Amino acid sequence: MRERMLFLSARSHTPEDREGDIRTENFLDILLERFDIDLLEYCHHRRETQILRSPALTVHQVKRPAATRRSLLFPLNRLRTDASMIGNDKSLRAVITEMCSQHDYSHVFVSYAMLGNGLDLVSSLLPGAVIVTDVRRAYGRQAQSRAAGKRGISTGYRKLNNALMRREERRFMNKTSLLLAASEEEALSFKALSFADAGKVHVVPPYIDLSEPPYAAAGDTAKDNSIVLHWDMHSTHGKNAALLFFKKVYPLVQVAVPDLRCCVISGEVHPEVAAAARKDSSILIIGEAIQTADYIRRARAVVASCSEDCGSQSKILEAWALRTPVVSSLKGSEELICEPGRNILLAETTAAFAEHLITLLTTPELGSIIADQAYRTLSKHYAADGVKAKVLSLV
Q1: Which of the residues 6, 67, 112, 204 could staple to 180 if both were Cys, CB 3.0 to 4.6 A apart?
Q2: Could you give a GO molecular-function term held by this entry (predicted)?
Q3: Are the beta carbons of 237 and 16 closer than 8 angstroms?
Q4: So what's the pLDDT on residue 354?
């Protein structure tokens, strides 16, 4: 008999958080193989949510109120995620309480955006349930890296906030049965917080199903003199990264490879990016769809991101699955197992990005070697079968 699970997820629907949405959807896909799931989504008004269709999945939605100036002032003693507002939403608490009273849940999955008070509530209502939490520190790490160079009163605030966040993380480590981290780095940082609870921490990386199209069809494909820019270009960070590339990187590459073509793949494109692309006939904008795999497969290089906060991890894995070498920034690839010069090329300056792209365009044999090594890395660490088996063995 299948057990019943309560799955708590908060979706901000911001472009920067697309990696988090993909991770949550992947967990749903895996857990539906074993559990009947009641999915409770905490989401914004007037937002359409893509949800997996399955007879084992029942979806409940709680509309999230629009943010006010007061709600944006996060208190020091709460994690800087949606979790800091969950405890203040009476309608959400009422729905969770009602669902827990109506069903006998053996397991509860709490996504990273519902930690904090969301975890407190379900642990009090279902003391006998196995509580599985997903943790992502993407925003925290990016905010810390930006704040590290600042001085003045913000330095003291940042240190105090980091200390309080660590205390909060130790507290919810104590309340959870399993804590799933996205990378070895994140897992080690959580294990260091509490020796007693370190055994609860496990790494569950992102994955690609190589048996599904378009990856199953990926093989030896003739390459042309094209590159692909693949990240979300509707967000502020994505827009700025694209404009920087067109201004500082692309002209240098064009000088070395005059017949170059640049394909821009993004679900939505900021008007400024579209305007910049129209100025050069060699730049083609393509909406995200299954056909985009053909452009990636034929390209000599994929630029996953030349800036942070662009959600590039899934794009890197997609390029690896399609056997195309990737050029990215260190920040964009830090949660993946990357060996610079072997399975990926990393750059921190516009000149370095241009140099790597020129190298891949003018020495195709190097690109083939890097792509093959990347595919082996993907098959070993990020293939769907292995990741799914690990998750199901843990729960």
Answers
A1: 204
A2: glycosyltransferase activity
A3: yes
A4: 96
Tell me, which fold does domain 3-204 have in CATH?
Answer: Rossmann fold (3.40.50)
User: pTM for the complete prediction?
Assistant: 0.83
In whole angstroms, give the CA distance from residue 281 to residue 309: 28
Three-state secondary structure along 68-101? CCCCCCCCCCCCCCCHHHHCCCHHHHHHHHHHHH
Determine phi and psi for 180, rounding to 5 degrees.
-105, 115
Contact by Cβ (8 Å): 202, 387: no
Q: Spell out the domain ranges in the chain.
A: 3-204, 226-381
Q: Which of 260, 277, 265 has the alpha carbon at shortest distance from 224? A: 260
Residue 133 β-bridge partners: 110, 179
